[in-house]
């Protein structure tokens, strides 16, 4: 199984176009922010040293988008292999169908994890150079942990999405839709508070804003404590809910609540995907 | 290896019957050909033999193993009709990966098949950049990785030149001897079927004839005669009156007769009307024509 996982990683990382398109959604949100959104948002903030707050904010959202698109892209290999008959060939080996499926999932999980870390490094490096943002090395272990957790949830999400896809053709379209939507759902293009409440509700029906919130609570913590030091009670909380650092249902969710919601999504995705998967073995031979 | 037994095997796609109540008993260490035109149901049968396609009804058994089991699949090697290895990986990477996915494949065995199929110089080339014939050789080496007891080849030589075909068959026959391997080949190349111990002629998902090539020839191949005559019309009328399905083609009369004796009788009877003649035994093509009414090729 290790050999097969290695093969999936190799196919992903050696294909330049694959790599590029898997992070395209993330790159777009990042570039939009740099050239356009940042100025817009900064004008609505009153405190000074805005980059220290806004830069980690966009990094968090972009990492969420990265998790969504890279896991989906990586798991797409499964559909591709099915259509080309390569999966049929692998089924002739000693690995059973479920083992191959598991290997695809593990590969997507690893890829999503690594790609988030790579993107985090790239974005921090950029902001360190341009804005003089100091890199929070002490947060590395937590960041690695969150990236893994987020990759896990989004791999399950991708599995669910791909249960509906049979053709490589459909895959491209799905990738485009998910890639574009992810930025919106994670609230990277616009802070969650600036969209109509019906849209907010829609966003909260996906794991995207929760994932972004987990990242934001980690990466923006120091800056926010710093900026709102001595500010009026409730001001910090108002900012945090407006920017999706904290999410509100009836009341504001604690970090544990947010993790709980993510885990619920994870379990839900897995259950539905498994139910759908029961028939997929039959479709292995699209072409003989 | 026990016999491979196929009984009442049927596969329907929606309303289309691709394979229709197929029955076969294939003994170990034989070379079997499935001969049939496009759409006959050959690949569908291969799909079911590999356990990748579920039959609609009927069974396949190899001793007490059935195709759904891992143990069954460990015994077989398949060359699919279309190349199924990873295009972006090199030949070496592809073969190594597959080898690692079987229990204890020896490096020496891998080296051996790579060498036999002349792949040594292609090892570091990406599979996607290989020519059709090179790919086929890689496909075959991939199928041989687990020393299969049953090798299934789905149209292995479509689009290959004579040299490549010769190399491939030399290797396969050699390995067949060594591994006491059963080989099942699907093809519409008659020459290829002629080497087989046993041929199943398949059309519309049904076996329409099954026998050794010699026996098939004996049974179905007729003698084809071409007769030249100073007065072809007269000859034609005479033959037709005698009940032969004779035809006039560019001043020559052609007819088929059941066997060599009849052809001699015909020649003797009409010797005065015949200036020249040609007669030969039908090949697999005529067998096929006789069976299906269709030209193969
Ligand atoms: N997945 C499928 N869905 C519907 N019909 C199918 C499917 N697969 C095969 N068929 C049909 O079943 C019939 C047999 O197909 P098959 O591929 O077995 O033919 P074949 O003998 O291998 O032909 P060829 O020599 O062209 O490879 C064909 O009429 C084909 O259209
Ligand atoms: Mg076929």
TrEMBL record, chain A:
The keyword Electron transport does not apply. It comes from the Bacteria. The keyword Transmembrane applies. The chain crosses the membrane at residues 12-36, 102-127, 139-162, 174-192, 258-277. GO terms for cellular component: membrane. It is a multi-pass membrane protein. It is found in: Membrane. Pfam families: ABC2_membrane (PF01061). Keywords: Membrane, Transmembrane, Transmembrane helix. GO terms for molecular function: ABC-type transporter activity. Signal peptide: none annotated. InterPro entries: ABC2_TM, Nod_factor_ABC_transporter. This is ABC-2 type transporter transmembrane domain-containing protein.
TrEMBL record, chain B:
Keywords: ATP-binding, Nucleotide-binding. GO terms for molecular function: ATP binding; ATP hydrolysis activity. Residues 4-229 form the ABC transporter domain. It comes from Secundilactobacillus collinoides (Lactobacillus collinoides). It holds the Pfam family ABC_tran. This is ABC transporter ATP-binding protein. The lineage of its organism: Bacteria, Bacillati, Bacillota, Bacilli, Lactobacillales. InterPro entries: AAA+_ATPase (IPR003593), ABC_transporter-like_ATP-bd (IPR003439), ABC_transporter-like_CS (IPR017871), P-loop_NTPase (IPR027417).
């Amino acid at each position: 199984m290790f050999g097969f996982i290695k093969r999936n990683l190799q196919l992903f990382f050696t294909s330049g176009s694959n790599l590029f398109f898997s992070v395209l959604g993330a790159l777009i949100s990042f570039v939009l922010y740099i050239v356009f959104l940042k100025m817009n948002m900064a004008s609505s903030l009153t405190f000074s040293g805005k980059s220290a707050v806004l830069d980690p904010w966009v990094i968090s959202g972009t990492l969420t988008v990265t998790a969504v698109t890279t896991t989906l892209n990586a798991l797409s290999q499964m559909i591709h292999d099915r259509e080309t008959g390569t999966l049929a060939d692998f089924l002739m080996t000693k690995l059973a169908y479920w083992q191959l499926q598991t290997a695809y999932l593990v590969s997507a999980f690893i890829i999503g994890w690594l790609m988030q870390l790579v993107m985090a490094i790239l974005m921090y490096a950029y902001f360190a150079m341009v804005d003089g943002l100091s890199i929070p090395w002490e947060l590395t272990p937590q960041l690695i942990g969150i990236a893994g957790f987020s990759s896990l949830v989004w791999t399950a999400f991708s599995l669910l999405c791909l249960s509906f896809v049979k053709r490589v053709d459909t895959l491209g379209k799905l990738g485009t839709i998910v890639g574009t939507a992810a930025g919106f759902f994670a609230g990277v293009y616009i802070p969650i508070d600036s969209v109509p409440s019906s849209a907010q509700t829609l966003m909260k029906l996906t794991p995207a804003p929760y994932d972004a919130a987990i990242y934001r609570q980690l990466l923006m913590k120091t800056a926010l404590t710093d900026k709102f030091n001595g500010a009026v009670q409730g001001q910090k909380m108002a900012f945090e809910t407006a920017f999706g650092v904290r999410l509100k249902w009836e009341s504001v969710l604690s970090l544990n609540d947010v993790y709980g919601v993510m885990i619920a999504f994870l379990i839900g995705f897995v259950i539905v995907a498994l139910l759908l998967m029961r028939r997929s073995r039959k479709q292995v031979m699209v072409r003989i | 290896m026990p016999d491979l037994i196929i009984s009442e095997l049927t596969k329907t796609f929606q309303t289309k019957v691709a394979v229709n109540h197929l029955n076969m008993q294939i003994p170990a260490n034989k070379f079997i050909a499935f001969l049939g035109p496009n759409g006959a149901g050959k690949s569908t049968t291969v799909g079911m033999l590999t356990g990748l396609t579920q039959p609609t009804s009927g069974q396949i058994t190899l001793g007490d193993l059935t195709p759904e089991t891992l143990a069954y699949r460990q015994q077989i090697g398949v060359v699919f009709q279309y190349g199924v290895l990873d295009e972006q990986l090199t030949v070496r990477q592809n073969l190594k990966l597959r080898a690692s996915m079987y229990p204890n494949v020896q490096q020496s065995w891998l080296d051996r098949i790579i060498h036999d199929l002349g792949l040594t110089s292609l090892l570091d080339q990406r599979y996607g950049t290989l020519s059709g014939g090179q790919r086929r050789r890689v496909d075959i080496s991939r199928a041989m990785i687990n020393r299969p007891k049953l090798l299934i080849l789905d149209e292995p030589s479509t689009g290959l030149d004579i040299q490549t075909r010769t190399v491939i068959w030399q290797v396969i026959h050699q390995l067949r001897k060594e591994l006491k391997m059963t080989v099942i080949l699907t093809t519409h190349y008659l020459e290829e079927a002629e080497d087989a111990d046993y041929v199943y002629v398949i059309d519309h998902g049904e076996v329409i004839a099954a026998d050794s090539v010699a026996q098939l020839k004996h049974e179905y191949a007729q003698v084809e005669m071409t007769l030249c005559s100073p007065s072809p019309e007269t000859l034609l009328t005479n033959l037709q009156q005698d009940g032969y399905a004779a035809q006039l083609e560019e001043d020559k009369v052609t007819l088929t007769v059941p066997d060599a004796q009849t052809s001699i009788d015909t020649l003797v009877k009409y010797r005065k009307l015949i200036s020249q003649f040609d007669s030969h035994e039908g090949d697999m093509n005529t067998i096929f024509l006789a069976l299906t009414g269709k030209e193969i090729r």
